[in-house]
Amino acid sequence: MVYPGAAEFVPDTDDLGALAEASQACKGCDLYQNATQAVFGAGSRKARVVFVGEQPGDQEDKAGEPFVGPAGRLLDKALAAAGIDRDDVYVTNAVKHFKFEQRGKRRIHKTPSRTEVVACQPWLLAEFNAISPEVVVLLGATAAKALMGSSFRLTAHRGEVLHLPAENATVDLDADPEVVATVHPSSVLRGPPEDREKAFDALVADLRVVASLM
Ligand code: URA
Ligand code: SF4
Known about the structure:
By secondary structure, the protein is of the alpha/beta class. The chain contains eight helices and seven strands. Keywords: 4Fe-4S, DNA damage, DNA repair, Hydrolase, Iron, Iron-sulfur, Metal-binding.
């Protein structure tokens, strides 16, 4: 399915509040239909670091705020362990509406498709252009592929200091931030209990690379 994309819904402004409000009217792909609301990024426009997740989860969809559920709590713990102040960061997602499958009363997360990620990218780029971050942190494969290209392999490049690929025509940014890709915090929660501590420590190690760039 080819979607019209968000571009025609994104106002020409670098006011994050105005962008967030406008995102509520986006019909750039089908995901607005079943979600409660768009979940825009949160944080200060003066933030030097922007964290990009995948999409809002069940709790974020209801609250209208990114990273307030279990993955957000784990991210907060990892940021604290890496010595990064949550007030210094802006957090957002590659896709602004929650994609899920209804199973009884539960809403089960579904990974957004590449076309949905591409459809939603104008919002992300508007956030980047409003903030001009020095560092962009990509949390998980969806965010990493959204900005580094679909052939990007997270396992091969996590924790490295990268730059957005110039040849990626979908990325048209005024600035050239440093980029660090790492795992999604929910992958730490999903893994086998005996591996969790190791996975958490590896996430923190990648975030220490981010801290060194700030
Ligand atoms: N997972 C994400 O990728 N983003 C959120 O906001 C919450 C969970
Ligand atoms: Fe628009 Fe993104 Fe929501 Fe799709 S997911 S409707 S592109 S805001």
